[in-house]
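FIELD: query
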Amino acid sequence: MKYEDFNEWDFVEDEYFVKWVLQPNKYSNKFWENFMTGHPDKREQILLARQIVTNIRYKHDPQLTGTEYTSRFEKLLADKRKLAFSHHEKSWWQSNRQWLKVAAMLFMALTITYLVVNPFSDKKNDQIVAEVMVTKHCPPGAKLTFILDDGTKAVLNSGSTITFPEKFDDTVRRVQLRGEAFFEVKKDATRPFKVISGLIETQVLGTAFNVKAYGDDDRISVAVLEGKVRVRSTTDSPVAFEHTLVKSQESLLNISNKQALQRELEDGYVFGWKEWKLVYREKRLDLILKELERWYDVRFQIDQGIDVSQTHSGSFHNEPLTVVLRALKFQNAFDYRIDGKNVQLIPKNDMK
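FIELD: result
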């Protein structure tokens, strides 16, 4: 059966659909977004099926897996069928497609009654609203500060993207990050705050920390300014690890070397970008240039003869690009040309 022929019941039973709802990633999000765009008549059924899965997963059992969810769903619905249709043949159930729509709606109420967490009778509005996701992108050359639903402050660095629910649920505060961000998490002992950033997951209750996880970088890092966090690998990580960090400690994952380490921070320069302070300590030139591309929204062309493996140290506070380039120029044998957003690095003897 193709997804074009699915109704809400079929989507709820589909393993790929359930995994998307419980553990979304950029590939599954893209697939279902494209599918709903191409099949607008299926959007309502998909949203209804997603709400059923979400209702079980997040409000009642945070550890429920996709397989356990499917098993529980089938058991509950089977019990309801026995009560209401004990004298009917199975073939009737399979052929009566209209019942599937009714069952999906009834099951939403049945699940909450069965699991008994927050009875509907205690709520002024018993309508379940589909989760609304928000995506914020900070373009190159900028910084972006905003407050999340729970009061947590987030600062996005240049070229970073974050996705989060418009309103967090009652069990967990989860955001997805691509790039770099600093968080001042509002303390809430009942709802841990989790940052999913590619190959790592960072969890806290209330603290201030920095996560750097750009897609084109070979390293992912988490640094703690205040409080305590737990950093652990995801299933996609090249190495399994778990670190518990306190103030002035950092967790670093080197993807190509498949190494993860926990270390003390020498100083707080990793947090300086929030105040437009560009600081690097014994850093390779190619890595510095990659960071400058994000900070100043430019693209570098590096001519042959320039040693990008040389390391440099420097500190700049909201300086123009030319100031940074002049400092690097004196430390390395190159010159440069700037043409709009394109910057060419040229061996010194070749400059005309």
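FIELD: remark
DSSP finds nine helices and 18 strands in the chain.
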